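Sync notes, pocket subgroup
Present: LS, DG
LS reminded everyone that the earlier model was apo-only. Rerun requested with tetrahydrodeoxyuridine included. Inputs:
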Amino acid sequence: MQALFEAARDAMKRAHAPYSKFPVGAAIRTEDGLVHSGCNIEIASYPEGWCAETSALSHYVMAGGGRITDIAVIAEKMAGVTPCGGCRQRLAEFAGPDTRLHLCDNDGVVETIRFEDIFPRGFDGETLR
Ligand code: THU
């Protein structure tokens, strides 16, 4: 878990968050052991920026995807930060109910929860397929 935490923390250090000054990092681990991380990226047209989890998902997809076992999220200014609503829906596209979500502070994981517990009864795109 330490490696996943460090990947999220390293990603957070690359955040481009000049407007909110709220750097966030996220890291996704798949069952093959690969880790895909990302940071939040803000732009001058504020609503067009995006979250760390979304950046991490982009790297995950580009690397070929796979079953997600663990996700870590960190924000240096908020211990135990959780993914925003939009990112919960995006993560739900690829994560499963049993995916472990690790909430962090600046020193490590402070809480681990099941993805299902943070995103119950989310919109299920299965019927669209
Ligand atoms: N942010 C994330 O990157 N992930 C979250 O789960 C919460 C919010 C970012 C978006 C924005 O760049 C900054 O944090 C403040 O909202």
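DG: The radius of gyration is 14 Å.
LS: The mean pLDDT is 97.
Action: DG to write up.
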